[in-house]
Write a structure and sequence with these properties.
alpha/beta, 2 domains, Helix Hairpins, three-stranded antiparallel beta sheet, five-stranded parallel beta sheet
């Protein structure tokens, strides 16, 4: 209870409870609105805490299972915060511009990523030295342009298991693509959006920098915890496997030694008695017959 109170206090100080003007509200956000003050809706922070913890727990399990979670935030005030958080936990992100088809046309996007990586390799290993200065400049500009948009998904080899969106209204294209592919969606939902559009909604102010930072950092900490637990379980499995291998090797050595001892015993015991069915050796007598 103290932790919840502390978290609620932090959310209050960060301005997470400030919603939009009453005239811009979405009626489906009614269960999450606490009151109205000076024409602005106030979000119920009790509901925010509950949904935030539920979302964090779900994302932690996804991270623990080894799947990727993609961060999406192309709003000016959220770009830097989200990209830094995604880099901390080595997760893909899109913060500059959402390319149409980034998920639904993933194979084509991967080709663009590979092209960007090949250009980068050419410029770094000296392969482009044979080109003219103008061609090298053109390649450099192309790489910078692609890296700006695709840099966050360069290491993404397959579709992510989940999307975390800062403003589901602003990122409606990404949300639609995720829904089409059956990808789980998590997002910050302000009073002007429909919370039913995402699988896990966090009612919160998605415009203020402090509000975005505190929610994203909380989510990132949960993901980091899930990754740490995954690594710990891997280490435990490795130690168990090493122990099993050692025990198995020891058992094989003991079995080999027992077999060797048994073989020596059989050879020593079989030298004295005559084998069954073998002809008996005739013993000649040295006594002379009587009377001769």
């Amino acid at each position: 209870m103290e932790n919840n109170t502390s978290l609620q206090q932090q959310l209050l100080e960060a301005g997470v409870h400030f919603g939009h003007l009453k005239k811009k509200w979405n009626p489906k956000m009614l269960p999450y609105i606490f009151a109205e003050k000076k024409g602005i809706h106030i979000i119920d922070l009790n509901k925010t805490v509950d949904h935030l913890q539920e979302t964090a727990a779900a994302l932690k399990q996804i991270a623990k299972s080894g799947k990727k979670i993609m961060f999406v935030a192309t709003k000016k005030q959220a770009k830097e915060i989200v990209s830094e958080c995604a880099k901390k936990v080595n997760m893909p992100y899109a913060t500059e511009r959402w390319l149409g088809g980034m998920l639904t046309n993933f194979n084509t996007v991967r080709k663009s990523v590979k092209k960007m990586q090949s250009i980068e390799k050419m410029l770094n290993d000296g392969s482009a030295d044979s080109l003219t200065k103008k061609e090298r400049l053109t390649l450099g500009r192309d790489k910078d342009k692609m890296e700006k948009v695709l840099g966050g998904i360069a290491q993404l080899g397959r579709l992510p298991a989940a999307l975390f969106l800062v403003d589901i209204g602003h990122e409606h294209i990404a949300l639609a693509e995720a829904k089409r592919l059956g990808i789980q969606t998590f997002g910050m939902v302000d009073t002007n959006c429909d919370p039913n559009k995402v699988d896990f909604s966090i009612p919160a102010n998605d415009d203020a920098t402090k509000s975005i930072a505190i929610i994203t950092n909380y989510i990132t900490a949960a993901i980091a915890e899930g990754l740490a637990e995954r690594q710990a379980s891997k280490d435990d499995e490795g130690e168990t496997e090493d122990g099993n291998n050692e025990n198995e090797a020891k058992a094989k050595r003991m079995e080999a030694e027992a077999n060797a001892e048994g073989g020596r015993g059989k050879r020593g015991a079989g030298a004295a008695p005559t084998a069954p069915g073998a002809p008996k050796r005739r013993i000649q007598s040295t006594r002379r017959p009587a009377g001769k």
